[in-house]
Every structure is written in C-alpha cells, then in structure tokens.
Specification:
The protein is mostly helical. It has a domain of 53 residues. Helices cover 58% and strands 0% of the residues. The protein is built from 2 helices and no strands. The longest helix is centred in the C-terminal third of the chain and has 26 residues. The protein is flat, with a radius of gyration of 22 Å. The N and C termini lie far apart (54 Å).
Length: 76
Amino acid sequence: MQENFDQAQPKSRRGFAAMSPERQRAIASQGGRAAHQQGVAHEWSSEEAKEAGKKGGQISGKKRTSDRNEDRGLIL
C-alpha cells in the first residue's frame, strides 16, 4: 500500500510539543531536582560561569562583526 505524500497534512503535536509551556517547565524542573538528588547534576562554580559568559560574549561579538562586514561587502 502506497501513501500519498503529495498532499501535505498538518502534523499532530505529540509529547512535549503538545503540552503547555507551564507543564513543560514543571516536568523539566522535576528532572532537574531528581538529577541534583542523585548527585549527577552539574553545579557551576562562579569561575566556570564567568568563563562561559566570556566565551558566549566573544562568539556573539564575532558574529555581529562578521555580519556587519558582510553587509559592507567585506569578507574576513
């Protein structure tokens, strides 16, 4: 039996996609609490968080600079 793929039918939302954002947050929160209770959750030190923030700022800054240069026709 062949299915007709020519006619696009909307996909039904299942799982997390079908839940309200509040319900998604509640389930994710339970998972986070369980991970901490089991001792497998990562806890950021202030130094780790500082480094991660610095790296994120560098990456987003590079992208902005690159985008501006592309708009001017410059390639880096």
